[in-house]
Amino acid sequence: MLHKEFIVDGYERTIHIEHEESGLDAFIVIHNTKLGPAIGGIRCHNYSNPEAQLDDTLRLSEGMTLKTAAAGLNHGGGKATINALKIKDRSLAYQILGQAVEELKGSYICAGDVGTTVEDLFKVKDATEYVAGISLESSLPTALGTHTSIKALLKRDGLKTKDQTFTVQGLGKVGKHLVKMLDGKIEAYDPFVADLDGVTHIEESKILQGKFYVPCALGGVLNGFSLASIKSEYVCGSANNMFDNRNDIITAHNMGIKYVPDFITNCGGVVAVALDFKNKNYKSALTTGLTKRINKILDMAEADSIPVQHAAEQLANDRLE
Ligand code: NAI
User: What are the pLDDT digits (tens) for 258-279?
Assistant: First the structure.
C-alpha cells in the first residue's frame, strides 16, 4: 500500500492511498477534530483525475465540519473518496481502505455515501472498528430531520402541518419517506414518479407557486431565476446547497422567505451515524433535540435581523472557535 500524507492549508490531515493489486486509489481528508473525531462517508465516484478527486474530498470534508458543528454533535468533518474507475478488486479495495482508517486510530469514523454499498462497508469493517451506520438507511433519518424542520418552522407561526399543503420537488429516497411523515396535503413533481399514493402530481411549472415548497431533489433551488418568480412563503426540504450563491441568501432574507438551512434540515444521516457508533438511537436527537437547535438558530436570526443561513453558520463557527 502506498500511503502519502501531505499538508493542505486549513485541513488537519490529507492522505492519499494507492494499492496496486486492488486498484484502490483513495483520499482520506480530516478537516477538523476540534469538537471530536471526524466523521463522514466514503464516496465512490468516477473521477477523471486526482486533482478533481482531492478537491471533492476537501470540499466534502469541510462541509461535514459545518454540518456536525451546526447539528450540535461532538464530531468534526472528514471524508474519504475512492476513484471507481481504478478499482480492480472491490472487496480488497474497501478492506485496504479500512486498514488506512484503522491506522488513524479513531480520529476519522467512516460511513456510507454515494457509490458505497452495505457490502462494501462490511469489507471496511473487516479491517477497522471505526465504521458506523452500516445497516442504516440514511434517507430515513434525513427525512425525519427534514420533517422536524418543517414542523418547527410552522410552529413558530402558530401553524400545524395537518392544515398545510406541501409542494414537494423530488420523490426519491428522502422525498418518499417525507411525504409519508407529513400529515398535510401533498402535491409533488418528480419526472420519474407519477403515481405515488396520497400525492397529487403537478407540473414542474407549479413547483414554486404553493405556500410551502419542499425541495428534495436538486441543489441551487433558490437562485436569481427562481427568486424572481417564487410565490412560496416557506422553503424547507432535504436538498443540499439550497442557495445557488451567497447573494441569494440576502435576496431570500429581504423577501422574507422563511426557511431552515439545508445543512440543518438534512443533518439526520450524520446524526444517525454518530449515534449508531455509540449504539444509540437517533429518534429523540432528530425530533426534540433538533427542534431546540432550530429554534435557537431562528431566535438568533430574528434577534440580530440576519439571514437564517448566517445565524446557523455563526452557531457552528462559534462552537469551532
Ligand atoms: P434520490 O436520488 O433518491 O431522489 C431524487 C429524486 O429527485 C429522484 O426521484 C429524481 O427523479 C427526482 N428529480 C430529479 N430531478 C428533478 C427535478 N428537476 N424536479 C423534481 N424531481 C427531480 O435522492 P435522495 O437521496 O432522495 O436525496 C434528495 C436530496 O436530499 C438530494 O439533494 C440529496 O443531496 C439530499 N440529501 C440526501 C440524503 C440522504 O440520506 N439520502 C442526506 C443528505 C442530503
Answer: 999 999 999 999 999 999 999 9
